[in-house]
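Chain A, query sequence.
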Amino acid sequence: MDFSFLFQSISPLTISDLFHQFAPLTITGLALGAIYGLIALGYTMVYGVLQLINFAHSEVFMFGTFAVAWVVVFFHGTSSTSQGLFSTLGLLAICLVAAMLTSAAIALLVERVAYRPLIRKGAPKLIILIAAIGASFSLSEIMGLRDQIVGWFGLKDNLSNYVSQARNVYSSPITIDPHGLFSIGNYRVTDVDLLTIGAAIVMMAFLDQFVRRTRLGRGIRSVAQDPESAALMGVNATRVVQVTFLIGGLMAGAAATLYMIRIGTTRQNAGFIFGVKAFTAAVMGGIGNLRGALLGGLVLGVAENWGAALFGTNWKDVVAFVLLVLILLVRPTGILGESLGKARA
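Chain A, predicted structure.
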């Protein structure tokens, strides 16, 4: 079969532009992929323990983005301004804590309402997956109806800065102005780039060591590998599942903070596309593998940027998912196909 038509839109000029813009496309792709990777850690953790996909994890991330925006409004007000990263580090630290706590709370709520009752009743996995999808849509709609919800309590006027235009794009009043630090090729690497990529790597490394070396981490791995044997050894499976959702929520909150630093806007369905991409990254890297989740995110982010440069921005999602299919055809378990339960101590 002749596939030459796929490459007819790639002109020599386009390829030349890709090589010329290789450094900026790669570094910004890594930064975007780092956010994908942090969200993917939540998918990987839950799948590794329960062999289920938490489809509500995208909304866990979305709630974190709103937590960041609302903290900025609370401390700064609604007047728009542009500031450097280092001048806002104190406020961003508060945003990070708020986002991680908010996302963790939503993740625990999802586990308590949508997962635990069905797991205790021995429901089929398909039913649990449907419940997770229902929780995802419910959380998204709750955020989209926040103006009406606070109106029931007569607080709409008092909270207008937080609930107005509930279904429209909600912007953070402070825009982070990146500051160039050093050059790689023809690209000036910024402090925001380094923060995003560095934070993702540090958090993944910390989580990886936590799962491999701590007592609770060993409990997570034992439940992931053999739940029945773990129960006989005294491991509290319910507590392990709670901790798994908690950790996934914390990582999603961190990703939400980095997302708001780079993007600065959110809305009630902002988690959908990022959730799909993060799940893709988890599968690409090897679902159930912590290091694979971050690696898959980085590869996906770079592939999107390169694909957008070659074929146009409308094709970047096509390139990303075609790459996923090609990787799985060659290696069905993903790039790093070791499961969470087989993680080496």
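Residues 17 and 309 are 8 Å apart (CA to CA). The mean pLDDT is 86.
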